[in-house]
Design brief:
The complex is a heterodimer of chains A (324) and B (138). Chain A is mainly α and 324 residues long. Chain A has helices at residues 22-33, 47-51, 55-83, 90-117, 120-132, 134-147, 153-167, 169-180, 185-213, 218-247, 253-270, 286-292, and strands at 299-300, 305-306. In chain A, 65% of the residues lie in helices and 1% in strands. Chain B has a five-stranded parallel sheet. Classes of the chains: A mainly alpha (324), B alpha/beta (138).
Chain lengths: 324, 138
């Protein structure tokens, strides 16, 4: 038997002992140490709390989680895999496949919440709703359009960072809100694990974007920045409608919007860009911030507010690294 | 006038905040082979956080190397921690770890590259802090 002609690149085994970009190893280590499965969260402890919600609150919650499931599904099957052909190192490819798989875990975990708390009928209705809701469908289509194989590889990264670091937050708001009122606290614990993962994904993809555009000529970089801000405007517009439709009845729309502005600015920072929304429109309800990062009070030694004068309590450190 | 020293990884969030502050500052290098700053006067340290879910690895290795030098450590007056609230309880944890290790206060915390509000607070706060420090030392 003859050897096949060598028409393609040499297949290469990944060597983790030869790293081109230290960020790949750092992020791989973070993601793998942070690995989790929904079974580790005792969701059934929320059954009683679920029973205290009104019908409208339950419908809202199921719809919000279904909307999040759709985003995770897209990122799992299309978004993260679509970045693979543009990877600059074999280690980046490995990190991206980890990201893709964790998105599948996230998407799967919402179904764990549903099977623990909800009836099949309620859940089926919500999935039907997700296929028919014009705002949810529009934002998904807008992102998928940028993920299309013919799209610009830089724009694909921008769209991916916006999904990871912005689009989830109209949904993440609700479990943080319930948690701040001591409701569905185990569900909130699970959502916090998802939020932690998405933060690393947005950071890493945004970092790779910054590296990728470093050597582009200035006009191309300016085009990409303009594209990013324009896509953010379009997505924000859809999110504002989506948010109003979901949250108006609870009177929470404006509160959610402040959270959207705050997260939109953080998504832009992941790409290395400045804020879009002014500070006064980003004043997130302190109860929501506290639900996001419990046990971590605001330190402001400078203005004399907060719990700042406390000089550290026992924290996890690697003592072998410290000489003193 | 006292100093400002910071660490920023290749993703550059902290470096962008420091640039926006417009205060002269020395950067702890990302690469171990590059020379460390050797402060000759008291300074405040700005440090981002890279902790895992359990809080391990919060302080970058290069910052630990920098602080392991006793004369350098002796001049540290306060720390500003950076991070992301999405990491929950480990948000800006590196500031807390350094504060506990070096017995200095956590002066402030901010997310990622900071907001306009953060930049104004840090600029005004550092100014006030150094004036107080000087009057204590005088």
């Amino acid at each position: 038997m003859k050897d096949l002609p060598h028409t393609t690149a040499v297949p290469r085994a990944i060597n983790w002992n030869r790293i081109q970009d230290d960020k790949d190893l750092e992020v791989w280590n973070r993601l793998t140490v942070n690995f989790w499965l929904p079974e580790k969260v005792p969701l059934s402890n929320d059954v009683q709390s679920w029973a205290t919600l009104t019908d409208a609150e339950r419908t809202l919650t199921i719809r919000v989680l279904t909307g999040l499931t759709l985003l995770d599904t897209i990122q799992n099957t299309v978004g993260a895999p679509s970045l693979l052909p543009d990877a600059q190192t074999p280690h980046e490819e490995a990190v991206l496949t980890n990201i893709a798989f964790m998105e599948a875990v996230h998407a799967r975990s919402y179904s764990s919440i549903f099977s623990t708390l909800c009836s099949t009928k309620e859940v089926d209705e919500a999935f039907r709703w997700s296929e028919e809701n014009p705002h949810l469908q529009a934002k998904s289509r807008l992102i998928l359009q940028e993920y299309n194989a013919t799209a610009d590889p830089y724009k694909r990264k921008i769209a991916s960072v916006f999904l990871e670091s912005f689009l989830f937050y109209s949904g993440f708001y609700l479990p943080m809100y319930w948690s701040s009122r001591a409701k569905l606290t185990n569900t909130a614990d699970l959502i916090r694990l998802i939020i932690r993962d998405e933060a690393i994904h947005g950071y890493y993809i945004g970092y790779k974007f910054q590296r990728a555009i470093e050597h582009l000529p200035e006009p191309k970089r300016a085009d990409l920045k303009e594209f990013a801000f324009s896509l953010m405007f379009d997505l924000y517009d859809l999110e504002a409608h989506y948010t109003a439709e979901l949250y108006d009845d609870l009177g929470l729309t404006e509160d959610v919007k402040a959270f959207l502005h705050y997260n939109a600015n953080k998504a832009l920072q992941n790409l290395g860009y400045e804020a879009l929304f002014p500070a006064q429109s980003c004043e997130v309800n302190p109860a929501i911030l506290a639900a996001l990062s419990p046990d971590s009070e605001n330190h402001d030694f400078f203005s004399g507010s907060g719990s700042s004068y406390v000089i550290g309590k026992a924290v996890a450190t690697e003592d072998e690294d410290w000489d003193f | 006038m006292a100093g400002l020293i910071y660490y920023s990884s290749v993703s550059g969030n902290t470096a962008r905040l420091v640039a926006a502050l417009g205060i002269q500052a020395d950067r702890i290098p990302v690469r171990p082979a590059d020379p460390m700053p050797a402060p000759a006067r008291p300074y405040v340290l700005i440090c981002p956080t890279f902790a895992d879910g359990a809080g391990r690895g919060a302080v970058p290795k290069q910052v630990i190397r920098f602080l392991n030098d006793p004369p350098t450590r002796a001049l540290l007056r306060g720390v500003i921690g950076a991070g992301n609230r999405n990491f929950g309880a480990t948000f800006a944890l590196s500031g807390d770890v350094i504060a506990a290790k070096c017995n200095v206060p956590v002066l402030y915390r901010f997310e990622m590259a900071g907001t306009e509000t953060d930049i104004a607070c840090i600029r005004a706060g550092l100014d006030k802090f150094w004036r107080t420090e000087c009057s204590i030392m005088a």
